[in-house]
Structure formats: C-alpha cells, structure tokens
Amino acid sequence: MMGLARLIGAAAIAVLALTDVAHAADKIRIGEGPFITGGAFFVAREKGYFAKLGIEVETKSFIDGALAVPSMISGELDMSFMTPNASLFNSIAKGAPLVVVLDRGSNKKGYAYTIVNVSQALADSGLKSLADFAKLKGKKIGVGALGSINQYNTAQALIKAGLDPAKDVQWVVNVSQPDLMKMLGAGQVDATDLAWQFGVFAQQNKWGPIVASGDEIVPDAAIGMYAVRKEFLDKNRDVVVRFAMAYLHAAKEFNAAAKAPDQHADIVEILAKNTALNKPELVKSIAPNWSYVSEDGTPLVKSIMEMQDFWSGKYFHFVEKKVTEAQLFDLGVAKEAQARLAKDKPFDK
Predict the structure, then answer these.
(1) Residues paired with residue 222 on neighbouring β-strands, in sequence order
(2) Does residue 288 have a cis bond before it (omega within 30 degrees)?
(3) Which of 110, 208, 209, 297 has the fewest beta carbons under 10 Å from its own?
(4) Are 225 and 38 in contact (CB under 8 A)?
C-alpha cells in the first residue's frame, strides 16, 4: 500500500510539474510605457482579458520604446511597444531578431496624439497655424530624439511650408518632453513636437500655444506598434495570437472610450491608473486625442515604410540600409487573431 501511495504521490507531482511548465509557456514578458497610446494593453490587462485566454503578462516599463530594444535583443523581453523610428529600422537591418505584429496607435484624423507648440513670441509674430510654418526658418525646434516620430511630424510640416528640415532649422534633441515644455517657456527652443497632454499643459501654463496637430500634418501616420522576438514567435505563435485577441477586444473599448469618455468610466479609471496622466479628469480632458488603435490590429505598413524612406531620403540619412516589409512585419498574427475572435467569440461567454 505504501508503495502505491508513493507512486500516486509521484504521479501527482509530475502532473503539477507539467501544469507549471504549460503555465510558464503562456507567460509573455512585455515592455510597455506610461503612455495613453498603450491604453488597449492596460485595458486588456486590468480587465482580465489576457488571463481569460490563458496568458500571464509580466510587464517592464520603459519611457521610450527605443530603450526596450536592447532587452528584446538580449532575450529579457518577448514583446515590446515600439515607435517607428530610424534606430528601429537600423537595428533590424543589422540583424535585431524583431518583427512588428500589431498596431499601437496612430494620428487618425480627429484622434491625434502629437501636437506642435511654438513660443509665445513666435505666435505673436504671426505663427498661428500650419500655414505659417515658414516663420520657423532659422529657429530651434526641440524633439526627443533624432529620427523619432516627433521629428518626422515636424519635418513634414516644414516641408509643407517650403523649408528644408535638414538645413533651415536647428534641431535640439535628446530632451524629455516635460523638459521641452519648460524650454519652450524659457525661450530655449522656438517650437517643439509633444504628446497631446504635454502640449495642452504647455499652452495652459503660457509657455507656448498649440499651432498644429499630427493629424493635420500627416493624417493617419503611425505612432506605435508592438514588436515580438522572432524566436519567441516561432516557438509560441499561439500565445502571441491569443495576446493579440485580448488586445484587439480591448482596443474597441479603448477607442469607444476616447470618443465618449463619460460613458466609459471604468476605462478612464484604468488609463488614469496606468499612465502618466494619473487623474481621471486629465484623461477625460484630452479625449479623443488618445491616438487611435486599429481595431483589426494590422500595423500601418504604408505609413511605417514611408517613415523609413524619409529617414534614408532627400533630407536625412539616419537609415543607411533599408529593410523590406517582409523583414519588418508579420501580418499574419493580426489576421489569425481576427479570425479566431470571430470564430470562438471568447469574450461573449
């Protein structure tokens, strides 16, 4: 009898061990940031959508998606938010084992997330809108980084005004957005491209008015996306697809809340808790300018490839060797997630 009991006990331990292994295989180590453009992720996590599909998300926070690239390359992360910037294209061209699988927000018309502020002195001199950007010739423009989405947006505005963005302005780079607001107020920069909440804050503090938004400059331009390690995707594709299913379900709620925040108090609370905005009233005050997440999950391929072309084109040469769409994207993940959501309807149960 004692031998039988030992056998049963050993079998139970083996079953538990197998269960733990299966559970561990369903963990995704993901890089995220305290930005409202990532709101669909926070909604899915806080409302248990990932857990419902058998996924445990282990989150590590970064203040910029570019800072997560080394952790992705080293294998410390499985997925991360990214922005379509020159450094990402260069990293993949050099062999970084990453592939973009999901959209994470864009400057869709009416939902812009980026904004351009100018100094009060420039506004007083007549720079009131996108049509007046020629007045920025010879001026200092602050952005977080070279080759960033913020520099891309402002450069496009300068081109529309007939200026050469490489020669006609001076770029002030590698400064955080909160510091750029203060520099604008102190006259250390003449213009800056900011996230919507920072642009509003700068205007409210009389540091410099808003003169243009990202959806005016380049409508529907990509802001962010999710990238996954190729090795992780190859070995755990079903897990990544289930992640996408939960994320897409949450994206619909996120977009609906951006349009009518008073009708979605639970979403507003989640965004306040998980983003730099901190307070529900601040989250609501900038709606619908949270960015817009593609509800089918498909990355904005055309927009992202246009950004790569720009950084290796006429004005700038930040990208030395361009990557192909096949190298940069796996569009199958979003498609598989859509199909399974339609077929299985896991969130209707």
Answers:
(1) 106
(2) yes
(3) 110
(4) no
Chain centroid to CA 4: 56
Q: Backbone phi, then psi, for 276, in 5-degree steps?
A: -70, -10
Report the mean per-residue pLDDT for the chain. Answer: 92
Q: How far is CA 211 from CA 137, 216, 279, in A?
A: 16, 10, 26
User: Backbone dihedral region of 120: left (phi > 0), alpha (psi from -120 to 50 degrees) or beta?
Assistant: alpha
- As beta bridge partners, residue 116 has 193, 212
Check: CB of residue 198 under 8 Å from CB of residue 126. Answer: no
CA angle 214, 33, 330 (to 5 degrees): 75
Question: How far is 79 from 58, CA to CA, in rounded Å?
Answer: 10
For the segment 86-114, what is each residue's pLDDT rounded down to a tens digit?
999 999 999 999 999 999 999 999 999 99
pTM, rounded to two decimals? 0.89
The per-residue pLDDT for range 3-56, each reduced to its tens digit, is 544 544 444 444 444 444 444 449 999 999 888 998 999 999 999 999 999 999
Q: Of 203, 212, 198, nearest to 160 (Cα)?
A: 212
Tell me the β-bridge partners of 28: 57
**CA 161/CA 159 separation, integer angstroms:** 5
Helical spans, DSSP H, in the chain: 2-25, 39-46, 49-52, 69-74, 86-93, 120-124, 149-160, 177-185, 196-204, 214-217, 230-235, 237-259, 265-274, 280-285, 301-311, 325-328, 332-344
